[in-house]
């Protein structure tokens, strides 16, 4: 195969270029305007020196046979689209703050670029509380066919999305956005301008989070979305809308509807510095994207081709272990799938950071009679070795237990609250503290009989614990919880479920058929944690309403979907811990204030709060969580990136170039922003 590749014979029906083969000539910059010359340049560029490779390889969990850019199909086969689109913006991995077009990043690792300026699709935004915000788009943005990638294209895409979600004839529902001009998209929350619509005045901090997105579906070309938008507009009844939707969801945007040559000439999607120039570059093993020299980020890089290997699961891991992939995300740990021992010497981790928006929580359903008891919840947390749960599930070097018990991850806790406030809060044990656990169970009215905890009525204490079977980390972490509790004398019925059954068990529309489970946790903004949210896919401090819409709680409800009381007495002092023996769901406390939790989290999202008022709302939520531990946030991820250090030069580990991400990883920023640099030699330091 290697000989065939060197001879230029492709084995996969795609490009005959083997990875890094150099079979495509490198343009030689000339000093006379580009019409020949001796190859010398007046000023150095990123392509001035001869690189050892012209191609960088990544893998996406998709295949050319099913790839479909259409985001409205029932099966999500769009994976890989973000590599074929402009960066929306740059989110800081430490602070979660976003930066946009024109951000300058030092690049001392480049021999001819001390810094690069990164173009992103969003150039900035304005916010006008209580309803409006404006996204400004970079006027250099273009689809691959040269048409503007602008606010008008985005509005058309979003309007189709609005109709496809069933809003054509929904009372009180309006499409709240408009292209003010070609490059400015105006959004607003509900203003109550139509019957049955309540106004939704919103705080500046929330409006800012809606503006300038870093993630989301890249808008499809208006040639695709505009006809569907007009069909929806013309639909006279619900049946006509359904007919349009049926056509939309079955309409596949395959790779040949995007390619410049050899496709259908539609070019219905794709933007950004690497483009699909020919269907000859699409094979069963990989697709090769070629640098678009007209893109502003193209001048930052000397890497001419981006190869996306079609691979997931075991195949992807094999490519990593064989060194085929040049860049990927994740920490290189002492255990797990990607270890130093499994990688070639030239593939090394080059940065690692504590992920500000990624972690896990032990989610608890208070409808279980044991979990209703405050002292039982506290006892269970103390009995479990959370360091072991984290290490056994995610790897000792891939995660870190949280330091603060506020329901937030540590980055948000430390940026939101003063050090003095955090120091006063109660800190639950991260290593198993059986002495505390026993004392708390006794205060709950439980006793041990033959090594088994029993409740005040003599019933054995046990709960169900579920985990997603498709996540080895969740399964191994949950098994550690079961082992800890079983050894301590508390029964655990452990089950693993496939995605559909597991997610259904957490859906309030299906009755919340679970006691406890391992669940992801992490958002960029504090108000996203301190929120009433019953949707199964994102855990808020307060659940939804069991009497109305399950997704939003009502201040008049007695409990949320998970059985947690809406009105609770919250201690006035941070770190207060004392409670009555056998405390139930609503203990009577000293030195506490009765708080309606729904009103509290709703007030956070309302305009007009002073900074101190906003802080006090945050502190109330933190004191509530710290005292009641309705769930338990136990760790967050250590993330990283690793790649080929022989053929590519990367920034130093602490460089600001590693501070930015899109969609849970930094590889696309490194490559699409032009930060990655193909090396001019093959020298590298072997791993220690």
Automatic annotation (TrEMBL):
InterPro entries: SBP_5_dom (IPR000914). Pfam families: SBP_bac_5. Gene3D superfamilies: Dipeptide-binding Protein, Domain 3. Residues 1-50 are annotated as: Disordered. Residues 258-523 form the Solute-binding protein family domain. Residues 14-25 have a biased composition (Low complexity). Residues 1-13 have a biased composition (Gly residues). This is Solute-binding protein family 5 domain-containing protein. It comes from Halosimplex carlsbadense 2-9-1.
């Amino acid at each position: 195969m290697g000989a065939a590749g060197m001879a230029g014979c492709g084995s996969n029906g795609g490009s005959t270029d083997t990875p890094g083969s150099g079979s495509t000539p490198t343009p030689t910059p000339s000093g006379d305007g580009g019409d020949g010359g001796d190859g010398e340049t007046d000023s150095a560029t990123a392509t001035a020196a001869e690189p050892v490779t012209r191609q960088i390889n990544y893998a996406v969990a998709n295949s050319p046979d099913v790839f479909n850019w259409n985001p409205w199909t029932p099966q999500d086969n769009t994976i890989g689209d973000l590599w074929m689109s402009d960066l929306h913006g740059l989110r800081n991995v430490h602070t979660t703050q976003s930066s946009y077009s024109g951000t300058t990043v030092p690049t001392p690792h480049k021999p001819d670029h001390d810094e690069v300026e990164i173009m992103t699709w969003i150039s900035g935004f304005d916010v006008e509380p209580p309803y409006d915000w404006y996204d400004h788009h970079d006027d250099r943005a273009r689809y691959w066919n040269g048409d503007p990638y602008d606010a008008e294209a985005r509005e058309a895409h979003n309007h189709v999305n609005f109709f496809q979600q069933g809003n054509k004839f929904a009372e009180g529902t309006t499409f709240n956005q408009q292209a003010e001009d070609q490059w400015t998209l105006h959004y607003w929350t509900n203003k109550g301008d139509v019957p049955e619509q309540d106004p939704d005045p919103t705080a500046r901090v929330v409006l800012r989070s809606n503006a300038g997105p870093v993630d989301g579906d890249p808008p499809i070309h208006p040639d695709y979305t505009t006809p569907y938008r007009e069909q929806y507009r013309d639909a006279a009844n619900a049946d006509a809308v359904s007919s349009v939707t049926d056509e939309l969801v079955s309409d596949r945007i395959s790779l040949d509807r995007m390619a410049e040559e050899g496709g259908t000439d539609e070019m219905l999607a794709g933007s950004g510095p690497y483009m699909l120039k020919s269907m000859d570059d699409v094979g069963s093993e990989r697709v090769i994207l070629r640098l678009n020299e007209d893109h502003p980020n193209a001048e930052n890089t000397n890497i001419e081709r981006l190869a996306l290997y079609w691979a997931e699961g075991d195949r992807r891991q094999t490519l990593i272990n064989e060194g085929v992939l040049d860049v990927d995300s994740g920490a290189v740990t002492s255990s797990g799938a990607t270890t130093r021992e499994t990688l070639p010497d030239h593939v090394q981790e080059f940065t690692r950071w504590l992920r500000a928006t990624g972690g896990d929580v032990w989610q608890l359903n208070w409808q279980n009679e044991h979990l209703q008891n405050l002292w039982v919840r506290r006892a269970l947390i103390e009995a479990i070795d959370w360091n072991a749960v984290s290490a056994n599930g995610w790897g000792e070097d891939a995660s870190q237990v949280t330091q603060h018990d506020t329901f937030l991850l540590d980055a948000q806790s430390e940026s939101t609250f003063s050090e003095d406030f955090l120091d006063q809060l109660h800190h639950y044990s991260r290593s198993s503290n059986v002495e505390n656990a026993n004392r708390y169970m006794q205060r709950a009215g439980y006793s041990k009989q033959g090594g088994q905890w029993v409740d005040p009525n003599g019933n054995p204490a046990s709960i169900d614990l579920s985990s997603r079977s498709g996540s080895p980390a969740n399964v191994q972490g949950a098994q550690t919880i079961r082992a800890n509790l079983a050894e301590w004398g508390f029964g655990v019925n452990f089950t693993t479920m496939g995605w559909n059954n597991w997610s259904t068990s957490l859906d309030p529309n299906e009755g919340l058929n679970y006691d406890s489970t391992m669940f992801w946790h992490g958002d960029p903004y504090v108000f996203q944690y301190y929120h009433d949210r019953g949707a199964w896919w994102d855990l808020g401090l307060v659940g939804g309403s069991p009497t109305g819409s399950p997704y939003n709680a009502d201040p008049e409800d007695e409990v949320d979907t998970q059985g947690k009381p809406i009105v609770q007495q919250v201690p006035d002092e941070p770190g207060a811990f004392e409670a009555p023996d056998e405390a139930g769901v609503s203990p009577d406390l000293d030195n506490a204030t009765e708080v309606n939790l729904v009103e509290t989290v709703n007030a956070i999202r309302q305009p007009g709060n002073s900074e101190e008022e906003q802080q006090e709302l945050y502190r109330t939520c933190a004191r509530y969580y710290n005292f009641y531990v309705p769930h338990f946030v136990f760790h967050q991820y250590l993330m990283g990136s690793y790649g080929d250090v022989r053929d590519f030069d990367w920034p130093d580990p602490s460089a600001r170039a590693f501070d930015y991400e899109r969609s849970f990883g930094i590889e696309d920023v490194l490559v699409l922003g032009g930060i990655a640099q193909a090396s001019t030699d093959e020298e590298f330091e072997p791993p220690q």
